[in-house]
Structures are given as structure tokens and as C-alpha cells.
Amino acid sequence: MTTSFRSFSLICALVFTLVACDSALVDSGTDDGLHTAEASSPSLRSGRGDGIINPGLPGRIFYAGYSGIGDPGGFGNFDIYSMDPVGTNVTRLTFDEEVDIEPAVSPDGLRVVFTSYRDGNPELYVMNPDGTGIKRLTNHGSDDEGPTWSPDGSKIAFTSNRNGHYDLYVMNTKGTGIKRITKESHTADMHPAWSPDGSKIAFTSFRDGNGEIYVISTAGKSGNFKHLTRLTSNAGTDRRPAWSPDGSQLAFESDRDGNYEVYVMNADGTGVVRLTDDPATDLHPTWSPDGTMFAFSSDRDGGPDLELYTMSANGTNVLRRTDSGGNDINPQWVTP
Hints:
By secondary structure, the chain is mostly beta strands.
């Protein structure tokens, strides 16, 4: 594995020390006004499977889970899994002794791009949704991570430090035509999330001293990304934005109130609402396909591991969906 700010911070998140990693960054900004709300292989992995509760939840959740195989760099190993939203029918999709994380399913549901350390450093790979047909998309000595699909399925945005610092890049789905779209020379841009209408990408940036949410928009028919807009401004760290299916809102994780919780705001950064309120850590929100629910990772039931939970879009009806004995992270809730 390569050693770098981004890969170190990513592994810190995986092993649950992300707060300590972020504390090394300089905080700046002013607080937002807030309102509080109450947010194929036959090998299977154990899950809680609350099938009696919400038995008709649609879709499928893809995520990274601790597999217990291998221990690269002493950080433990993750593979890609999928499950029904209630935690049943858990299927392991990758079987590598290195870390596989950050699955992102294509809009047509036919491909899954993910980050893998299987060839020595973080690179992007793609596979079928049953785990077959794995192909490497990027091949660079630096880190390529955090993929997200364009809504038409023709492009993949991701984070890379191939030019010395972590910036956002876009490429074709076969790994060709790589283009850098942010050029922040002294810090990090990461966690891209493409808007449902394809007009902008939301992302985390540390360019103003601490983690904040920004969007970068396309400029007319040229398709070039310009017009950078900062959406959040507070002394905590706001990161990992996730668009609502209709594009009107962004969910994100933040420690602005002392520990990481899930928040939601309008697409222009107004109307910030805290959805979870627990002394534990709540991370990685993803919307259900119909926009009425979230899945997220949390250690709220005593830890030390992160498990997957679902809740209503207003933060109520929080239910635990995995009980695996290992960390379950990076959920993406998709249509069947």
C-alpha cells in the first residue's frame, strides 16, 4: 500500500479512528443555523435480517464489509457485499486478500465500480453486480479512489493524487479519457457525488482549512466543469455528500456538534437539518431509491464495529440491519 494523506485518512475511517484523523486538519468558518429532526457467489455473510420490520423495502444495498481474510498493513480487510434493505440475502461479491471498498452501482444496475488495493495501491475496478467479470479501470502509481457514476452511465468521477494533491477527475467507463476537474494545489478534494440531472458534482474539500461541502457545475454544452460553489461553512468537518433522488437535497456526515451525525440540507446549502442525534458515530448516508429513507453506518449499539442501519428521511424509525461482528461501511441503496 502506498502511504499518503488520503489513503491514511480512508483507512482511519475504516478502522473507526476517523475523528482523530480529521482533528489533524485546521478548522475554520462559522456555524450554520441548525434545526434538529428525529433520522454470484453462494458464500453468505451473517446479518441481522429484520425481515419482519419493513418487509417490503425495495431495492438492494451494496456495501463494504469486513471479511476477516487478510490483514494488509495491519488495518484489516474489506470486501464488497450486497443485501436486501432489511438485512436479508447477504451475498459476498469479492474475495480478495486486499481491501475492496466504496462500491458504486451504475445507473442501469449492470456494473459496480469500486476501490481496491489488490494490486498494491488504491485503484478503480469494475465488475458485474454478482461479483463476476472484475476488470481494472485505472493503473497509476498514485491513489485513485471514491468513484461515482454520471447519471447517464457514460462517465465516472473519482479522487486521485496523481498530480501531487487530491483532486477530482472524470473518465470514461473503460478508464480512458481521464480529465482533472479541480486543481487545488495545497490540500484535498474528495468524495465526489454526481447530481441526478448531471449538471454538477458535490464533493468534500479542505481548501478552506477544514472539510466543507462544495459543488462544481458544468459550463454549457462544452461539458467542462467550472463555477465552484461552497455550500457549508462551519468549524466542524462536513463530508461525504449524497444527493436525494430528485436532486433537491444533499445528505452528509458532520461532526459540527461534537461527534459525527447525519445531516441533510437543500441543494443550495440552506435549511441544514440534523437527522441523527446519538452519542455514537453515524456515517455514510445513502438515500433509498424513492427518497423516503436512508441507510447509514453506525456504532450506536455499543460498537466497536460500524453496522448498517436504515431510517426514515426525517430521522425517525432507526433500525439496525446488520450484526456481522465487523465493520459495514459505504452503503449504496439502489433499485433492484
